[in-house]
Amino acid sequence: MSIDTPLFAGNLVRLGPIDHEKDPEAVSRWTHDSGFMRMMYTDPARPLSAWQIKKKLEQELEKFLEEDKNTFHFRIRTLSDDRLVGFAELAGISWTNRIGTIRLGIGDAEDRRKGYGRETVGLLLRYAYDELNLYRLTAVIPDYNTPAQALFTGFGFVEEVRRRQALERDCQRWDLVHYGLLTDEWKEMQK
């Protein structure tokens, strides 16, 4: 990659900031999709209003402005019409150890499987390894989320930890799987 390669834009999407006025409506809609919520979160799914989402975003902003320099929040927007399709983040960064966690979600079902997630992971990896100089990233994925597992293993993430039966969904126990990728492994895949 060259210094002129855009950090936050690909062919389909761009990573941008949270829009505290426009985003809550779409994010609220996503919380009403229990399938999406169960894929993204280990807490119980529950629908939230746009007002509740806006309050949560304001709290996150206050926390960020005060102290949290260890999380990078992004919103995923289409290049074609600047429509919000998801979120992404690099979180829990330990600067001393150069490690962090990667997460993303594509909100509406009709926006999934269009390449937005794949392009977003590529942008996040470049940003994490080339811009932030991180050495290692972790993705934590419920065992039932096979699309996310395929996405991350496609980028070279390998299973490192399997927390057996750590989650319960619909009276069934599921493993919580931790995947990891080192910067050397990522750079080797770029060749």
Provide an overview of this structure.
The chain has 191 residues and is an alpha+beta fold. The protein has one domain: Aminopeptidase. It is 35% helix and 31% strand. The protein is built from six helices and seven strands, in the order βαααβββαβαββα. It has helices at residues 23-31, 34-40, 50-66, 116-131, 146-154, 183-190, and strands spanning 13-16, 72-78, 84-94, 99-106, 136-142, 158-169, 172-182. The protein has a seven-stranded mixed sheet, with helices on both faces. α1 packs across α3 (50-66). The longest helix has 17 residues, at 50-66. The protein starts with 12 loop residues before the first strand and ends with a helix. The mean pLDDT is 92.
Summarize the structure.
Helix content is 35%, strand content 31%.
CATH topology descriptor? Aminopeptidase
Query: In DSSP terms, counting alpha (H) and pi (I) runs of 4 or more, how many helices?
Result: 6
Distance between the termini: 10 Å
Strand content: 25-35%
- Largest sheet descriptor: 7 strands, mixed
Q: Kindly name the structural category.
A: alpha+beta
Rounded Rg: 17 Å
Please give the share of residues in helix: 25-40%
Name given to the CATH homologous superfamily: Gcn5-related N-acetyltransferase (GNAT)
Mean pLDDT: 92
Shape: globular
**In terms of per-residue confidence, which ranges show pLDDT below 50 for 5 or more consecutive residues?**
none
Let me know the number of strands. 7
From the 3D coordinates, which CATH architecture would you assign? 3-Layer(aba) Sandwich
Top CATH class: Alpha Beta
Q: Could you give the order of the helices and strands?
A: EHHHEEEHEHEEH
Strands of the largest sheet, in order across it?
A: 1-2-3-4-5-7-6
What is the total domain count?
1
